[in-house]
């Protein structure tokens, strides 16, 4: 078969040359037949086409004429592109086939008939793969160049129909019939041109046009046809343009690719991110503030809110005013509102009246007098905690309302004692709160103090008794017992605390040896009532004023001291283990009065 085709092809070539010379003007249509010849290969893809091909025997003529015709259509050289594509195109094949018959009458040249046999070879279809073979078609390209001269002549006529659109670029160079086909392939890539061309295709064969659109898909199959006729290759090349169509699809994505460029823009965003990262790094540096303020500074800062309000109000009272009854009354009101208590307020006003009544008084002088009087009130209560270690262990019972800082204070105190070489044991007497038990265990681990605890809800008194025995057995110097502080049920609270004290007394009549109450400095006047309650129930004999590092109501300490005259052993100025400081009357008085 291959030999047979070769013969046919060679024959076609010869004819082509001749025909070209003759047909320069009229023959354009014959090319369609040539396309049919090409179909034999295309047939591989579609048997129907093969059948049609048989009919248009014109295969041979197509080879030779094909080019001429193409030129004619090509005249559409521009148009030619679409047509060939159409013909080569899938459906177009049929359409073309039909068109071919029209041409056939003119070129009924029998020779092609033999070509028909090859068509039956649809067996070839198996060869469809050879599609790539179309490339070899390129060889024929040179040949087409020869015919080129005639093509131009034919082109003009066809041009009218297809016209313009394709004419643009390819037409000029390829003007020669073959040329257009080749260039078409390239131009076809620019899809835009190719698309318009198909539209024009219709003119030649009325039917073709309709089919032309479909061809677009066909192209792929068309290429194979080209192989058989090396000469026909030019038109075949036209089908090749079809490939460009897919290219279009690819091209489309390209624009999408265009967006990527904007992505680079985000790069600056990355820069921004880097900045953010830096910012994050900065906060990390924050921890550096290792330089910790002294407890006094913290207390002063904590009391600053109290002192600012107090001193500000004092200044407001004594601005350009002489000390008289009205100013003294105003000052008394200011001090009472500062939680210092009536007793302390009167001490201050009496002191001022005794020494400065009727005279101009500055707010600084008033604050100095106030500091002095407050210190006088606090000095008696500002005593250090003394532990009688003749009691082994010395039992410290810690009481107070929930949240006032009992557990925290126990931890801080245990730290001080263990640091001082004392052997400490802790007892989790707040059996109503699991969190309280766990919190105390944490403090025990931190201070290396054993913790005696029981299940949640266990009897607090029983726990205290067990802890006392264990502390004795362990030879502990100090046993610190935590308790609950549920004021919402005073009766139950009183009963529990009384029971604890009674039980401890069984082991040591003097136990508990120290009963500390934690008082939240932020509580205000209610703290006075709390101290009264716990003093009566548990026999509180000492106070720890907590949270003085952040309150505007530190004056309550003065009121409590003046009213209850209970020792104030420590003040809490923070949540850390070393934020428990001995209470100093003078420092506290100067701090709250805003005196340097
Ligand atoms: N700023 C500050 N916070 C404190 C101080 N003392 C305790 N706290 C905090 O106050 C909260 C309550 O402390 P706790 O020790 O649990 O008080 P509690 O009386 O044992 O409370 P309950 O276990 O519910 O009975 C915790 O968040 C402590 O960290 C202090 O002196 N200053």
Structure explained in plain terms:
The chain has about 600 residues and is an alpha/beta fold. About 55% of the residues lie in helices and about 5% in strands. The protein has 31 helices and 8 strands. An 8-stranded mixed beta sheet has the order 3-2-4-1-5-6-7-8, sandwiched between helices. A hairpin with a 7-residue loop joins strand 7 and strand 8. Helix 4 crosses helix 10 and helix 29 packs parallel to helix 30. Guanosine-5'-triphosphate binds next to helix 25. The site of guanosine-5'-triphosphate (GTP) has 22 residues, from helix 25.
Number of separate strands: 8
Radius of gyration: 55 Å
Task: Indicate the low-confidence ranges by residue numbers.
Answer: 10-19, 42-240, 242-256, 263-272, 274-281
What distance lies between the first and last C-alpha atoms, to the nearest angstrom? 118 Å
Anisotropy-based shape: globular
User: What bound compounds does this protein have?
Assistant: guanosine-5'-triphosphate
User: Which structural class is indicated by helix and strand composition?
Assistant: alpha/beta
């Amino acid at each position: 078969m291959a030999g047979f085709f070769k013969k046919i092809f060679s024959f076609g070539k010869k004819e082509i040359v001749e025909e070209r010379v003759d047909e320069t003007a009229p023959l354009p249509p014959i090319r369609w037949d040539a396309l049919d010849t090409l179909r034999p290969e295309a047939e591989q893809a579609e048997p129907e086409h093969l059948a049609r091909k048989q009919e248009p025997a014109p295969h041979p003529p197509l080879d030779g004429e094909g080019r001429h015709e193409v030129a004619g259509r090509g005249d559409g050289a521009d148009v030619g592109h679409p047509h060939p594509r159409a013909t080569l195109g899938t459906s177009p094949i049929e359409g073309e086939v039909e068109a071919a018959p029209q041409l056939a009458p003119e070129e009924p040249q029998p020779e092609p008939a033999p070509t028909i046999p090859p068509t039956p070879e649809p067996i070839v279809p198996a060869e469809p793969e050879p599609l790539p073979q179309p490339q070899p078609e390129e060889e024929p390209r040179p040949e087409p160049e020869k015919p080129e001269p005639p093509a131009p002549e034919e082109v003009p006529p066809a041009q009218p129909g297809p016209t313009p659109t394709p004419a643009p670029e390819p037409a000029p160079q390829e003007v020669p019939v073959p040329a257009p086909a080749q260039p078409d392939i390239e131009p076809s890539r620019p899809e835009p041109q190719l698309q318009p061309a198909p539209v024009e295709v219709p003119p030649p064969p009325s039917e073709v046009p309709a089919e032309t659109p479909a061809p677009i898909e066909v192209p792929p199959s068309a290429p194979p046809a080209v192989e058989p006729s090396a000469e026909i290759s030019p038109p075949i090349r036209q089908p090749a343009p079809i490939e460009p169509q897919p290219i279009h699809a690819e091209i489309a994505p390209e624009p999408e690719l265009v967006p990527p460029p904007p992505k680079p823009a985000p790069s600056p965003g990355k820069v921004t991110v880097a900045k953010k990262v830096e910012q994050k790094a900065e906060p990390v540096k924050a921890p550096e503030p290792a330089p910790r303020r002294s407890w006094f500074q913290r207390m002063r800062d904590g009391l600053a809110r109290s002192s600012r309000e107090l001193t500000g109000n004092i200044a407001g009272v004594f601005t350009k005013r002489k000390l008289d009854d009205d100013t003294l009354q105003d000052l008394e009101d200011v001090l009472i509102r500062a939680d210092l208590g009536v007793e302390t307020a009167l001490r201050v006003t009496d002191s001022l009246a005794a020494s400065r009544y009727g005279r101009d008084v500055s707010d600084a002088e008033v604050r100095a007098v106030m500091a002095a009087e407050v210190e006088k009130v606090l000095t008696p209560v500002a005593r250090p905690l003394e532990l009688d270690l003749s009691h082994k262990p010395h039992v410290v019972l810690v009481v107070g309302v929930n949240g006032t800082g009992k557990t925290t204070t126990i931890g801080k105190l245990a730290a001080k004692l263990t640091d001082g070489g004392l052997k400490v044991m802790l007892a989790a007497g707040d059996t109503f709160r699991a969190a309280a038990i766990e919190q105390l265990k944490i403090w025990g681990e931190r201070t290396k103090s054993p913790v005696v605890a029981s299940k949640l809800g266990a009897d607090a008194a029983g726990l205290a008794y067990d802890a006392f025995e264990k502390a004795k057995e362990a030879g502990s110097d100090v046993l610190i017992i935590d308790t609950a502080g549920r004021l919402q049920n005073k009766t139950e609270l009183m009963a529990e605390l009384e029971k604890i004290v009674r039980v401890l007394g069984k082991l040591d009549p003097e136990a508990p040896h120290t009963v500390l109450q934690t008082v939240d400095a932020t509580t205000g006047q209610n703290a006075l009532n709390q101290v009264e309650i716990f003093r009566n129930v548990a026999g509180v004999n000492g106070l720890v004023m907590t949270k003085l590092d952040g309150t505007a109501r530190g004056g309550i300490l003065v009121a409590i001291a003046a009213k209850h005259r209970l020792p104030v052993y420590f003040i809490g100025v923070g949540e850390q283990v070393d934020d428990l400081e001995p209470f100093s009357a003078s420092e506290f008085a100067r701090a709250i009065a805003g005196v340097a």
